[in-house]
Write a structure and sequence with these properties.
Elements lengths: L5 E4 L4 H11 L4 E4 L3 E3 L2 E3 L17 E4 L5 H11 L3 H8 L1 E2 L4 E4 L1 H14 L3 E4 L13 E4 L7 H11 L4 E7 L2 E3 L9 E3 L9 E6 L1 H12 L21 H6 L26 E7 L6 E4 L8 H8 L10 E3 L2 E7 L2 H4 L5 E2 L2 E6 L9 H19 L12 H11 L20 H6 L3 H23 L10
Parallel strand pairs: 1-2, 1-9, 2-8, 9-19
Antiparallel strand pairs: 3-4, 5-7, 6-7, 10-17, 11-15, 11-16, 12-13, 13-14, 14-15, 18-19
Length: about 450
């Protein structure tokens, strides 16, 4: 009789990362994904367009790769821990200045390939509606922002708490050949990294006309499962526009550091476009998630200089994001306190962002493997980015809990003497990163992460 397996539910980012990590550490895994083909028809969520693993439904960016930034630190720790998905992201990277962005189609394909090649992983294409053990040693719930209604009810039954819902976003994508390149310029903010972003400059008059069109635009109809609880870190552009005439200019249309090389001047406002894939045949509008009707989007977005004749491959959308109140429910190893055989990872656990979801999947895979081998897992140290992200979602004030990206605010501050001695912010961040990586290396050695090798066929 075979030994009990680990069940991983969810084929987004956290689920495959958890499955590949646990398998690499010697565990047998069943990876469940509800998106599937039935009688030639695709069963999808309201936001997904494919049944592929690791589909990126919003942007294609995994954020900054600039040394000594918080996103860079998190990725450095993940690389040292052997993150398989981050390896694949590096292998499918597209030009994006100082950020790590991927060809989303190739990224998904590589994830599927890695899963198929891992003999310890078995893929099951069906919806999971119960979290009873059912013969599994452990279950990892990584069902993401659009957890099915049936499984949401099951989680609510087990936790005794209601889910909180807010909107998440999908930015529009335009065909590269439809951009009027005579009206735009390539640049990276402050010339950091290579000039990979297309910048659409606006005069004050153009900006004000665009703003007026946004605040008077017709919204898309809300569906039954939608409720206006926007996440402050991912607001629709029309909501930002209604907050004041300069809100967009200090947000996604910020012109600072984007001097137009043709004029030598900084525009009044700028819309940035980021390359979507390795072929560079499409670009997404950075930070332009919205909840407008498609016809309204086409009309208003074509007011942007350079996009007058834009062909849209995808319009912006808003969709639900569901997550649990982790501070009340999870322990330091992301186990449900009342059911320690259940672990949570990804956006449903309260992290926000692609990299953060992968990071939580990586951690849960490590913790589940330790438990499966009869060991008590050692939580990632608080001094690390991985540990600080987990500390936030498990220790934040439960009453006002909202999902979080990795920032230096989550990491421990330097001691008071060092803060008084070093006033330069960049140098402080460098020291925080140095301490974090040292703490990570000690933890990684303790957990034997560097000794783990991928299984071979």
């Amino acid at each position: 009789m075979s030994e009990p397996r680990i069940r991983v539910i969810g084929g987004g980012l956290a689920g495959p990362e958890a499955a590949l990590t646990a398998a690499r550490l010697g565990c047998s895994v069943d990876l469940f994904e509800m998106r599937r083909e039935v009688d030639g028809k695709a069963i999808l969520t309201p936001a997904h367009q494919t049944t592929e693993f690791g589909e990126l439904v919003c942007s294609n960016s995994l954020k900054s790769e600039s040394p000594n930034t918080a996103p860079w630190l998190l990725k450095q720790e993940m690389r040292r821990a052997g993150s398989r998905l981050l390896d694949l992201a590096d292998a499918t990277a597209v030009p994006a200045g100082h950020a790590l962005a991927v060809d989303r189609v190739e990224f998904s394909r590589r994830i599927a390939e890695a899963i198929v090649r891992e003999p310890r992983i078995r893929v099951v294409r069906e919806e999971v509606t119960t979290l009873e053990p059912g013969g599994y040693a452990l279950t990892i719930v990584a069902t993401g922002p659009l957890t099915s209604d049936a499984l949401s009810m099951e989680i609510a039954r087990l936790t005794g708490s209601e889910h909180l819902a807010f909107y998440d976003s999908i930015s529009p994508i335009v065909e590269a050949d439809s951009i009027d390149m005579s009206r735009v310029y390539f640049a990276a903010r402050w010339d950091k990294g290579t000039a990979d972003y297309i910048n659409c400059p606006m005069t004050r008059e153009e900006y004000e006309a665009f703003l007026n069109a946004l605040v008077t635009a017709e919204l898309a109809e809300a569906r039954e499962w939608e409720k206006a609880e926007y996440f402050e870190g991912c607001l629709p552009i029309e909501v930002l526009a209604r907050r004041g005439p300069d809100t967009l200019r200090f947000g996604p249309m910020k012109p600072v550091g984007l001097r137009d090389p043709r004029t030598g001047k900084t525009p009044w406002a700028v819309v940035q476009l980021r390359q979507e894939n390795l072929r560079a045949d499409s670009y997404n509008l950075v930070g332009f998630q919205n909840h407008l009707k498609f016809g309204e989007q086409a009309r208003i977005l074509r007011m942007i200089p350079g996009l007058e004749n834009a062909k849209f491959l995808r319009f912006g959308q808003i969709h639900r994001n569901t997550y649990i109140c982790s501070p009340r429910l999870l322990d330091a190893c992301l186990r449900l306190r009342t059911r320690p055989d259940l672990l949570f990872a990804g956006q449903i656990s309260g992290v926000e962002g692609y990299t953060e979801s992968m990071a939580s999947g990586l951690l849960v895979g490590i913790y589940a493997a330790a438990l499966r081998h009869g060991e008590e897992p050692t939580p990632a140290p608080r001094a690390t980015a991985l540990g600080s992200l987990t500390h936030y979602i498990t220790q934040a004030e439960a009453k006002h809990f909202q999902p979080a990206n990795i920032t230096f605010d989550l990491l421990p501050h330097l001691d008071e003497e060092t803060r008084k001695r070093i006033r330069d912010k960049k140098e402080r961040h460098r020291l925080v990163c140095e301490q974090a990586l040292a703490a990570f290396d000690a933890w990684g050695a303790l957990c034997g992460l560097r000794k783990a090798e991928p299984a071979t066929l």
